[in-house]
Description:
Layout: H1 3-23, H2 34-41, H3 45-49, H4 57-65, E1 81-83, E2 86-91, E3 94-98, E4 108-118, E5 121-131, E6 140-147, E7 150-158, E8 169-173, E9 182-192, E10 197-198, E11 207-210
Antiparallel strand pairs: 1-2, 2-3, 3-4, 4-5, 5-8, 6-7, 6-9, 9-10, 9-11
Amino acid sequence: MSGPVRAHLRHGLVRLVTRLLIAGVVLVGSAVTPTAFAAGLGGTAATRASSCVPTAGVFYDRWAQRPYGNGGYGCAIAPLTPTSYGYYQNFANGQMVLSAPNQGTTMIVSGLHSTYQDDTGQHTRIDFQWGDTAPYSYNDWLIRLDRNNVNQGQWECASGGTLCTATTGIWGFAYLIAPGNSYQFTVEGCDFNGISHTCNQGWTIPVWLWF
């Protein structure tokens, strides 16, 4: 893509964001809140999902890993939107944020909700993925989940296992999840010396999920 074309697209994005601000979408220093998102777009989740927009290029590879259906992100339902230090995009079943450059040049944190069946019936779970944190790397991760802005706990994931590496990770919740609530997920990369954590880059932009 030529320089003039890229410049034209950037200018188009600025104009689009300006129109969203005029329309009443509230942008904050973290990913957009459920109230602000609903107020800006209007309608129910079902009607919003029927009006898809293109998936932002920065998120396309992550989206393509789990595109549609139960367990997928679904189509993008709002354009790429800036925050104070990154970008986010909302999908029918989740959200992605670019928490960069504070936590890495291409640090993407994404989350989605889905349903699963067991002997006791149908349940809801949420799953998250983050990375890549280059040029930073860590031997431990701190993970935080809030429900309706109330902290539900903090977990650790050591690098080198099946869930977390030095620059990436995945994490899921099934036992804390119920429809009709909002969930906020954030992660922090740290170096753990066996006694204390050193976490120089801080917490990522939170991912918001509500369903």
